[in-house]
Amino acid sequence: MDSKLVYSAAGILCLVAVLPLPYGFYTFLRFVVTAGGFLAAIQLRNENNVLWVIFAGICILFNPFIPVYLDKGIWFPIDLAVSGAFGWLFFKEKKN
Q: Which of 2, 13, 47, 72 is 20 to 30 A distant from 96 in Cα terms?
């Protein structure tokens, strides 16, 4: 699977997550962001890029198996920051 597709999907879904949506969307979001974060962490670790730690943290925060429950006001900036992180990865991949 193309990593750019996963990164763009995770980034776009995080942007959409700031809207009031049904709970099922946020469960789906957790799966997609965790998969994208895991892929990014492995890729960055293989490149010896220390930013892999950030994406490992994203995996932990968004994991659907042991969910972290936070207030919507706290998730809002997190979702925007994570969307930006995936956007950075998308454009980083585009250059390569």
A: 13
Q: Crossing angle for the helix pair 52-62 and 72-95, nearest 10 degrees?
A: 140
Lookup result for tokens 């900036």: 77
At 42-58, the pLDDT tens digits run: 999 999 999 999 999 99
Query: CA neighbours within 13 Å on the CB side: how many for 6?
Result: 16
Using the structure block, give the residue that is written with the tokens 């942007």.
15
Structural domain harbouring 27: 3-95
Total domains in the chain come to 1
pTM as predicted? 0.91
Q: Over the stretch 13-43, which tens digit does the pLDDT of each residue have?
A: 999 999 999 999 999 999 999 999 999 999 9
Amino acid occupying residue 40: A
